[in-house]
Amino acid sequence: GKRHTSLIIKYQYLSEKVPLKNITCTLERNTIIHKKKSTKDGYVRFFDLPNGPWICTSESLDYETDLQPELITDNTKIIRLTLTLKKKNETFGSFKIAPVNKNTNKPFPELHLNIPILGRTFDAGEDTIFIGTDIPVNNYEGIISGTHIQDQAISITITPNNQTTLTFPVDPTPPKAEEPIS
Questions:
Q1: Taking a C-beta distance cutoff of 8 angstroms, is the pair 129, 97 a contact?
Q2: Could you say which of 36, 53, 62, 91 would form a disulfide bridge with 160 (CB–CB 3.0 to 4.6 Å)?
């Protein structure tokens, strides 16, 4: 018999915390065309799609058109897809930040960099470097945190089509223990 698939697409801008509404999603296959707009939560849902490769076009006045030329639906009950769209004429850059102990100048591993406006957290891990790609050009404020340090603020300027490289001196002062309430 004929098999059908449900397709759920979530549209977002750069981070999962920014859903995109009113994105027009068009699915085309042979002479069949389905068209829907994303909800305020950024979702578009299609049910009972016949098998086959579909052309999925996502369009909006504010965002670059996204084309998925061969969206395959074959006997999978539900396909979930997240598409990240870029604003039209928006330029991007990246960053590479190396946190070092301000006293010894040695790399400081296992720290976290949170940039609230992007809704993203980057981990330094063993390599002791934060790397961020496809970051919109802008000035950002972030917080570097870790188990063995007090939270520290950092400012990052992202320039067009460029990588911002910083060495960030981290104060290794451990967080103060909570005073017991008497």
A1: yes
A2: 91
Residue type, 171: D
What's this model's pTM, rounded to 2 decimal places?
A: 0.61
Nearest to 115 by CA among 139, 147, 96: 139
Give the DSSP letter of residue 19.
Answer: B
Structure tokens at 23: 């994105």
- 6 backbone dihedrals φ, ψ, rounded to 5°: -105, 140
Cα 150 to Cα 45: distance, rounded to the nearest angstrom: 45
Cβ–Cβ under 8 Å, residues 73 and 49: yes
121 and 98 Cβ atoms separated by less than 8 Å: no
Contact (Cβ atoms closer than 8 angstroms) between residue 3 and residue 12: no
Q: How far apart are the first and last CA of the chain?
A: 73
pLDDT in tens, 9-61: 999 987 566 899 999 999 999 999 999 999 999 999 999 888 888 999 999 99
- Residue 15 CA to residue 153 CA, distance in Å, equals 21
